[in-house]
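Researcher: Good morning. I'm working through a list of sequences from a screen, and I'd like to move beyond sequence-only analysis. For each chain I'm collecting a predicted structure so we can compare shapes side by side. This is the next one on the list. No need for commentary yet; just the structure.
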Amino acid sequence: MAARKRTTVKIGISGLGERKEIAPGVFINPSYRGCTPGFIRTDEGVILVDTPLIPQQAKDWRAQIEEECPDLPFLYLFNTDHHRGHALGNQYFMPCKVIAHERAYKEMSGYTENFKERVYNSFKREPEIQAQLTNIIIIPPHITFTDQAKLLYGGREVHLIFVGGHTPATSIAWLPKEKICFVGDIVWVDQHPYMAQANTVEWLRALERIRELGAEILVPGHGDICTPDATYRVAEYIQYMRKRVREFYLQGKTKNETKSGLVAEMLAWFPVPPERKAKIESQIKSGLNRVYREIQQEEEEKAQARQAAMASSGALETA
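Model: Good morning. Structure tokens for this chain:
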């Protein structure tokens, strides 16, 4: 049965939009607010990648998938990480087996009523969305993996690969035949990356690994598709932040002094709408916090290594 075309619909700032076929049987919707979800049609069923945060968007996405694949079951739902924008909509796609990195299970299993309340309260300025968040049900992964997993269904091959960096659970979905990679929040296009749980050394390695795959199309965690060239700008941002934080640290600046001194400098890297400036500044500060702790640890380890080398050298001279 041929899929019916749908008309693009918008509901205020919570756009629904229309599914977009980026390769035969591989779809995304970049219009949703919390993430860019996708799905892969196979002869045996559907494999989903991430789920919308806002219930109306999640329900719309399910309707779009069922419209495109009316006779196929949902096989797996892969969460690229445990953050609410990628995984809180899982409840609207049951029955389906959720698969994610083992750390995602640990994080999501710890989501309490307090977490749900924080999600609800985060939309206090948007009552039309807040009203949809009164019955949050957390669906953590049913299946986990440590380094890699492979899904082989209906002629499709989907590699799930742990890369870390953005979070301790961040993983990607690689379709080698189609040369498409769902990279989650490892890649941000013309946006400040969210770094509150980051390991920037891991993140830089993850960007290299994505380039080495040979992908032709990347699906970032937010926004429309891009090419692997987008990984370079993210790497430059992270490397620049690490360089500047190290300079401040070596000058004896505290973490708060470093944040105050660098937030405006980092803000200038990407365009920021005036209405989002305060939120993005807060986001950058959380990233600077994280990087400061990394640099502090790296420099302390260097100092300890130097002291150990000097002690060893002194012992040899004495001998």
